[in-house]
Known about the structure:
With 526 residues, the chain is an alpha/beta fold. It folds into two domains: 20-179, Leucine Aminopeptidase, subunit E, domain 1; 195-350 and 370-446 and 464-515, 3-Layer(aba) Sandwich (Aminopeptidase). Helices cover 33% and strands 19% of the residues. Strands 8-9-11-10-14-18-15-16 form an eight-stranded mixed beta sheet, sandwiched between helices. Strands 1, 2, 3, 4, 5, 6 and 7 form a seven-stranded mixed beta sheet that branches. Strands 12-13-17 form a three-stranded mixed beta sheet. The model has no long low-confidence stretch (mean pLDDT 96).
Amino acid sequence: xxxxxxxxxxxxxxxxxxxxxxxxxxxxxxxxxxxxxxxxxxxxxxxxxxxxxxxxxxxxxxxxxxxxxxxxxxxxxxxxxxxxxxxxxxxxxxxxxxxxxxxxxxxxxxxxxxxxxxxxxxxxxxxxxxxxxxxxxxxxxxxxxxxxxxxxxxxxxxxxxxxxxxxxxxxxxxxxxxxxxxxxxxxxxxxxxxxxxxxxxxxxxxxxxxxxxxxxxxxxxxxxxxxxxxxxxxxxxxxxxxxxxxxxxxxxxxxxxxxxxxxxxxxxxxxxxxxxxxxxxxxxxxxxxxxxxxxxxxxxxxxxxxxxxxxxxxxxxxxxxxxxxxxxxxxxxxxxxxxxxxxxxxxxxxxxxxxxxxxxxxxxxxxxxxxxxxxxxxxxxxxxxxxxxxxxxxxxxxxxxxxxxxxxxxxxxxxxxxxxxxxxxxxxxxxxxxxxxxxxxxxxxxxxxxxxxxxxxxxxxxxxxxxxxxxxxxxxxxxxxxxxxxxxxxxxxxxxxxxxxxxxxxxxxxxxxxxxxxxxxxxxxx
Length: 526
């Protein structure tokens, strides 16, 4: 018999999928069965007209239409993301199904330009069946072009819905990457799809409303990802968390009707024996999984609470990254830890003035129950360092409003105690389109953490992003460690290139771009 609680549990409607991708060495106008062809538009030389990319001459002949002239009529300059639509009511001899030509500006045709051109195309062709395009062909590095364009096309078409009649729009169902200069290495396309898919998955998880998304639900999603990706999984429920001394996670989740969880996922590179795996370096990723943050008794203003379903973005990023490690051929072992709790209000809530004992024994005096993220991260970091003996630890969290004040909404905050690790992550973020800016672990602010009764206080005030990072640093010892404070980029207020309005899921692409390199730990810890 179904319990009342289970019967009342909401059911997430089926969600749309990102497009499927295929490669072809034909020019886009010659591909039958697609209803859209997209051509790249580049700036002209000097005062000359814009230039159109591969396949434009052949399509111009078939249509009997001067596509360069059409671009100029629409005012296209070749700038990245410009779009013009050219209806084709009767198709062509080569492709009777063709109904639309899309001209897309690609700027200087660098990787960032192609990612943004892909996103612009995705918005122009939503609800369509299939598009063939030669846009990636304009970049000299075929592999980098393919990756950037595929990621942008996937994420620019992201959709989440909970509508009774289905989504308002759907992404184009199929994208054919056309042109003889494109890489025919299928693994390049598979890697690109994995990167875009990780961004999609982290964004999706962060967008799910919190009347469904609680710590147990997040652990269930982790189980499904683990099964699909061949990962080992372990989950701590509230009883096991208490037995093992995870005081921070328990304290933050104490007021909620849905108890906290700690999720562990383990990845080992394919073909590596258990014996050999023990000799591989270990990276631990730690994600903040606050499935809703009311602020607790230090309650947030209503306006600040509206986006707090996304306060588990760090956990979503870790889950999405773990699920895609095999697809990017990550060569090291990786453990993902997600500390999941709901910061709620009730008679059992954590109070200002309470002292909690973290895993490993360090204590924290709680001055502000809305500074809860660092309390759950502290437990997971201490456990990771003491029990797993990692070579590197990276945590990801929508942690402080202060980082948004410092960096705005387009750059994530990066703290690190190792220069090589900081450089590796910053470089990966730049390549992936998820930029990170390094901020200082300034020791002069350590005195702000002081408590009269505990090892530290959780509300040091002033330079809030830095003092939060200093608080966490005490739980990692001398292990190379980076802290990604992504509260600055956690929400997107308007459509902007591959970013869609709502929770961003920022970070998975950057982590995968780092961990998917042949030697991700080169120079770190030296």
